[in-house]
Design a protein that fits this description.
By secondary structure, the chain is an all-alpha fold. The protein has 14 helices and no strands. The protein has a domain of about 190 residues: MetI-like (MetI-like fold, Orthogonal Bundle).
Length: about 300
Amino acid sequence: MSTPTLTKSQQTPAETAAPAAVTAAANQGNEPVARTPKAGAARLRSGARLAGRGIWGSGAIILFLLLWELGPTYLAPASTRVFLPPLHVVLEALASLVEKGQLQSHLAASLSRSASGFGIAVVAAVALGLLVAWYRSLDSFLNPLLEVFRNTAALALLPVFTLLLGIGETSKISIVAYAAFFPVLLNTIAGVRTVDPLLIRAARSLGLSNFQLFQKVILPSAVPTIFTGIRMAGTSSILVLIAAEMVGAKAGLGYLIVNSQMSFLIPDMYAGILTVSLLGLLVNYLLVAVERHFSRWRTAVGSQAA
């Protein structure tokens, strides 16, 4: 027996509204969710806070650059403009040096010397620092000699390096390595000695060898302290190299600065100084990025604990 079918006029209101409700529920997932005004306002406030922090963080630099641009023109006497040109004049001189290719050649010479000396210092200082920190007898034997050389300024030994190694590349790379050696050495020793003893005992209880202990426990724990010394060494290597190039060199940023000053090319001199500042800033940021790469495990552990 067939079931009677109700016409639309015979259906109850609830039965009529049911298909419409089902269709609306089915289409709800396909329709984009409208953003509420409160969410949009919160995002705007968050963006405004970030922009405000960025402006405040760079405010001192902006004020300094404005003072450099406007000070020689409006605040200083006319005679001072010769020795302190406005910022736009220095930037024009910098662009001219880049266009001629002079800045690139001087920068390449300084970078090759600095990188060579810095690399030698980091490898030697980290290796010696690990040994000195681990073996107390070696520490007591070498510490007096290391303290003597650590307290001797690198630039004070520049004439000695020049006399023994000549005025070529070897003396400049050696003075850079000497200046960058001790910050890395001292921070490596401090980093190894501040490793949690409980971690070392736990590693030994697991049967790790001395090499595995250094690789998996001591070095990862000492990385932040070591990189503090590496960042200090990066700054020292650039500063000492610039001073060495001012004394005896035919290329490099130090030579560019002192030669421009002697030739009375004052804008070129300030362009070289500005390049040194930007180079030091770039090196610092690169070292910070490398430190974060090698310290990723600390962030992972912290996020898991949170």
